[in-house]
Amino acid sequence: MTSFDEAPPMCIDPAKTYIATMKTSMGDLTIALYPDIAPKTVNNFVFLARYKYYDGLVFHRIINGFMCQGGCPQGSGMGGPGYRFDDELPNAGDYKIGSLAMANAGPNTNGSQFFIVSGGSGVGLPPSYSLFGQVVGGLELVNEMQAVPTAPGDRPTTDLVIESVTIAES
User: Fold this and answer.
1) 20 to 30 Å CA-CA from 20: which of 40, 49, 92, 114?
2) 20-33, pLDDT tens digit by residue?
């Protein structure tokens, strides 16, 4: 199932710690999620990850010096989970290399697509994208990911696959 009727109910405890392990065809990323800062966004990501929604999807858009984007069930950048939810925006200057944020089509249009900031152009983004995590293991992989060859539309010429996303809660 890649489409849902509505955003998930709250399934996380914002007082707990959540770590996502994203296995990709290039290696693994360890991502600390921010349930205290962006509870709706973390809840959405955890729900989709536990549902295995991301398993087998690709990073469909990679721009060297900017970001690596994934989470589209169609692999085109046009798909989503069938619902949208509101932004939880950071302060200006909060994005860093390795930040995990929601891709969107304008205010309050979050769904399943996310991006990982990989360079200065991403760090300099205005605070228009819900920031909900940080790569804490595998930053060297983010650097390798952003350097893959891409075709028109910034799609990697060889699929960069999200093999699985698992969530540890403590």
Assistant:
1) 92
2) 999 999 999 999 99
Task: Give the separation between CA 167 and CA 18, rounded to whole angstroms.
Answer: 7
Burial of 64 (0-12, 13-18, 19+ CB in 10 A): middle
For the chain, domains (ranges, CATH) are 18-169 (2.40.100.10)
Measured between alpha carbons, how far is 151 from 1 in angstroms, rounded to an integer? Answer: 29
Q: pTM (2 decimals)?
A: 0.96
pLDDT recorded at residue 1: 63
CA distances 122 to 39, 60, 78, Å, are 22, 17, 21
Strands (E), the chain: 18-24, 27-33, 59-63, 67-70, 99-102, 114-117, 131-137, 162-169
Write out pLDDT tens, residues 12-66. 999 999 999 999 999 999 999 999 999 999 999 999 999 999 999 999 999 999 9
User: How many other β-carbons are positioned within 10 Å of the β-carbon of residue 21?
Assistant: 16
* Contacts (Cβ under 8 Å, ≥6 apart) of 53: 2, 73, 81, 112
Identity at 119, one-letter amino acid code: G
Q: Which amino acid is at 23?
A: K
